[in-house]
Amino acid sequence: SSITGGSGTSETCCAAALDACNILNGRLADLRKAMPTATWAQLAAAASGQLINLACEGWYNPTPSSSLANEFTYYVWAAAQSVVEIDVLTGQLEILSSFIYYDCGVSLNPDIDIGQVEGAFIMGVGYFFTEQVAYDQSTGEFLSTGTWNYKPPFPLDIPQSLNVTLLKDAPNPVGILRSKATGEPPYSLANSAFFAVKNALMAARADAGTTGWFQLPVPATVDQIGSNGAVDPSKFSLEA
Q1: Theoretical Cys-Cys bridge with 193: which of 30, 82, 174, 228, CB 3.0 to 4.6 Å?
Q2: Positions marked catalytic
């Protein structure tokens, strides 16, 4: 494939693997007819005895007329809900739970697909909250050169409860074996946590007597969350 966007690499690799399987099945067709009840191990042993090559390569390249060559062959549908807790004094964030409902067609491997959804979601958490890119305003020097000042998501950034459900009975008629990609689409679902943080800040601001729209930048870092909570230091008092 000449492109890798939109999880295209995953799709074309699966198509190439399917091509290799079809080639191998073609080589074994006569043996299957002769040994209809044979196990795979027995079939492989018989193929080896008859010098049938059990190694093959599959190749796939989308052509202008193929479905995978179109910019948008299909759409992935998903929904996410997140519950967060913020500390308006320090700006610290805790994602208490995230629930993801994801359409991957007929999953080729649910364990891998769920792992892909979880991983992409956490990458999105980094994008929305921690991975701030900084430059020197006078020289243009890139400052985010390491984890001291560039913060990818870490284990404690993972929601305390992370639940992924794959949509059932939703075959994709134009996908590889009726599947859908799970590489990039779940990334955007982390915006559920971002908007949960903004709602929490709106509630905190209302408690402080501040209402109305406000802009919360991305990434919503600890500094941004702390500075947008409308905290009034004059109210820091203890009552007897």
Answers
A1: 82
A2: 184
